[in-house]
Amino acid sequence: MNFNKQLFLLLNLFSVLLLSGERVLQAEAGHRHHHHHHHGPTKLFVFGDSYADTGNIQKAVSSSWKDPYGITFPGKPAGRFSDGRVLTDYIAKYLKVKSPIPYRYRKLMPQHVKYGMNFAFGGTGVFNTSVPLPNMTNQIDFLQQLIKDKVYSALDLTNSVALVSVAGNDYSHFLQTNGSEGLSSFVASVINQTTTNLIRIRELGVKKVVVGALQPIGCLPQITVSISFQRCNETPNALVLLHNTLLNEAVTTLNQQTKERSTFRILNLFDSFMSVLNHPSTHNIRDRLKPCCVGVSSNYSCGSVDNNVKKYRVCDDPKSAFFWDFVHPTQAGWHAVYNKLRTMNELQRILY
Ligand SMILES: *[C@@H]1O[C@H](CO)[C@@H](O)[C@H](O)[C@H]1NC(C)=O
Ligand SMILES: *[C@@H]1O[C@H](CO)[C@@H](O)[C@H](O)[C@H]1NC(C)=O
Ligand SMILES: *[C@@H]1O[C@H](CO)[C@@H](O)[C@H](O)[C@H]1NC(C)=O
Ligand SMILES: *[C@@H]1O[C@H](CO)[C@@H](O)[C@H](O)[C@H]1NC(C)=O
Ligand SMILES: *[C@@H]1O[C@H](CO)[C@@H](O)[C@H](O)[C@H]1NC(C)=O
């Protein structure tokens, strides 16, 4: 089990660089008109990390606010860890609601509060990680406070879905601080804490709670860079398998203990990622494991600037790559995963 060095994940993207100039958020993630008469959930609440964050982290401290992030959508950096849309945007699209505003814009854009809210912060986990940002407990506290403040009513919550992303920051932090010893019991703690969080979200009144399975971490460019992005590394995927097995058991138990049997759902991000990565051309993807945006050397990453000199390279066509940077899919990658989830009938289960 010598993947502690390799499994240094979502966190190392947080090279702290200062952004010059204030940018105003113009990103309007909703790309479908809201249907006033559709049935089903009308609000989306989002918790978790960079796979779901659409702009919660402050501009000064995150690569997601630096060029070339956001070049595809909305056309400039807007706080998403991709060239464009991320998982949250596609789930919102499926529900036919606007992509919920980041928590930190709730006062700036009060008219958008009705579509729900995104509490996810890149780099965070269910436990504390190396980034000093709200862990998932804190994120749920934010929703609880908004309910206390009467921003959301009981009826609002009944008509809502929660998306919960737990993409591995707890594990990268654990491996950095503790090494791989005790990792499997730590997986159990992560599942235990995730379960506690899912129950809390449900008890706040949210009707459906959807949690992502862990994606195949062994396929992330961060892991495969050492073999020139040739193939996935099965070793980290063993950890992923354990996490997903325990998560499945926990969610099955939760549903058995709940009156409505389909309250808690797992979004199968493992099979959907694998399917796209195994059949990239079906989704018009040419580069399956090689990321589109990379640092010019191992000292740099996507978005790095040194003395006003760009220290990264972007591929010609982000639409043809699955991965954007060392950890995150491109918009095309997320779109392919979304299409796969739809054909797997995974998304229908959000509604029914
Ligand atoms: C989340 O952070 C708070 C501090 O803001 C801390 O008290 C709490 O223990 C953390 N939760 C978990 C599950 O680690
Ligand atoms: C989590 O981090 C917060 C600060 O962000 C700190 O106050 C708290 O004590 C930490 N909790 C744990 C359990 O490490
Ligand atoms: C690392 O191990 C120590 C001792 O077993 C434990 O207290 C700590 O919580 C672990 N670190 C993390 C990040 O879980
Ligand atoms: C988490 O673990 C604790 C201690 O083992 C246990 O009491 C608790 O019921 C577990 N919580 C969940 C939600 O599984
Ligand atoms: C990377 O940085 C280290 C120290 O900061 C330096 O010694 C090394 O030459 C750099 N390597 C490259 C390829 O730029």
Strand and helix layout:
Blueprint: E1 43-47, H1 87-95, E2 101-102, E3 116-118, H2 136-148, H3 154-158, E4 160-164, H4 169-178, H5 183-203, E5 208-212, H6 221-224, H7 234-256, E6 264-267, H8 269-278, E7 293-295, E8 305-306, E9 309-310, E10 312-314, H9 331-343, H10 348-351
Helix pairs in contact: 4-5, 5-7, 8-9
The structure holds 2-acetamido-2-deoxy-beta-D-glucopyranose (NAG) (5 copies).
Count of discrete structural domains: 1
Class by SSE composition? alpha/beta
> What is the spatial order of strands in the main beta sheet?
2-3-1-4-5-6
Q: How many β strands by DSSP?
A: 10
Mean pLDDT: 89
CATH topology: Rossmann fold
Organism: Vigna angularis var. angularis
GO molecular function, one term: hydrolase activity, acting on ester bonds
Pfam families: Lipase_GDSL
Keywords: Hydrolase, Lipid degradation, Lipid metabolism, Signal
Structure characterization notes:
This is SGNH hydrolase-type esterase domain-containing protein. This protein has 352 residues and is α/β, with parallel strands linked by helices. It has a single domain, classed as Rossmann fold (3-Layer(aba) Sandwich). The chain contains 10 helices and 10 strands. It starts with 42 loop residues before the first strand and ends with a helix. Mean pLDDT is 89; it is low at 1-37. The structure holds 2-acetamido-2-deoxy-beta-D-glucopyranose (5 copies). The site of one 2-acetamido-2-deoxy-beta-D-glucopyranose (NAG) has 6 residues, from helix 2. One 2-acetamido-2-deoxy-beta-D-glucopyranose is lined by residues 297, 299.
